[in-house]
Write a structure and sequence with these properties.
Elements: H1 2-16, H2 21-27, H3 29-32, H4 37-44, H5 54-61, E1 66-72, E2 75-83, E3 88-98, E4 101-111, E5 119-126, E6 129-135
Antiparallel strand pairs: 1-2, 2-5, 3-4, 5-6
Helix pairs in contact: 4-5
């Protein structure tokens, strides 16, 4: 029975350590306080807007899942991709038999994403500022 509690405790600690706008604001307090009040309000709400700097976006949304560079006729742009990082739970059951022996297994797992991440927003930077924000529908 004890072996179940340790993984459950570790999983709870992992989930509680997730980064939020408030924890990111606290770790960047001196920088955050230099932003205008309307930008501070958006960051507190975990929102971004056109014209934000990369630092503002990092405080509001955290680190991106991926960073890309795109080239167009208008020039080069940097793209930050964010995905849904909500915990996902799975449950498994298995049985095996080999000769006179048999075994039964049971498992519970948690994770923060799958093999192909589910993108929720793309942030496009041009000349060091947010130029475009793409949100996933639905």
């Amino acid at each position: 029975m004890r072996t179940f509690f340790l993984p459950a405790l570790l999983g709870l600690a992992f989930l509680s350590a997730c980064s939020t706008p408030q924890t990111r604001i606290e770790s960047s307090r001196t920088v955050f306080e230099k932003f205008p009040a309307e930008i501070q309000a958006k960051i507190r709400a975990g929102q971004i807007d056109v014209g934000f700097t990369p630092e503002m976006v990092r405080i509001a949304l955290g680190e991106p899942a991926r960073q890309l560079t795109i080239k167009t006729e208008a020039g080069e742009a940097e793209v930050w991709v964010y995905r849904d990082d909500k915990p996902q739970f799975s449950f498994g059951f298995g049985m095996a038999s080999g000769g006179p022996h048999s075994a039964v297994g049971l498992g519970l797992a948690t994770g923060t994403g799958g093999y192909e991440p589910d993108e929720r927003v793309r942030v496009v930077f041009r000349l060091g500022r947010v130029a475009q924000i793409e949100y996933r529908k639905g």
